[in-house]
Amino acid sequence: MTDQSKPQIPADMKAFNAKLIAEFRANKGQLSGQLAKSKLLLLTTTGARSKQPRTTVVGYRRRGDQYIVIASNNGAPGSPGWFFNLLAHPVATVEVGAERFDVRAAVAAPEDRPELTKLIEYLERQQELTGREIPIVVLERAG
Fold first, then answer.
1. Fold of 3-141
2. What is the pLDDT of residue 13?
């Protein structure tokens, strides 16, 4: 694997995400630039240890009424913080476009992985960047 195959990660990811979140909310889910056509949602979880709300930008695909996301962490050796937050507190809030609603998260069952993998065309690229199996998370509307 060459450095060119790795995704470009901003030097200050926290600032980058804060800017994306602000733009997303100001424009009802519409982003500009390279991310204008991306399928992104805002995921607000409850911190596993802090119990504080944490919002992150996550790519998604749909399967019926479900939102499917992957805990790739840009191919890092460990899963992203939001994944551990969902394991501790599976009820979260999703913002898609101008819509905001609560979801219940569950890690996809092993037998569901093949079908879900077909929906997420970028999973294979991300999987090649890490030795761990990237979790697939299914978000379903709560209530």
1. Pnp Oxidase; Chain A (2.30.110)
2. 72
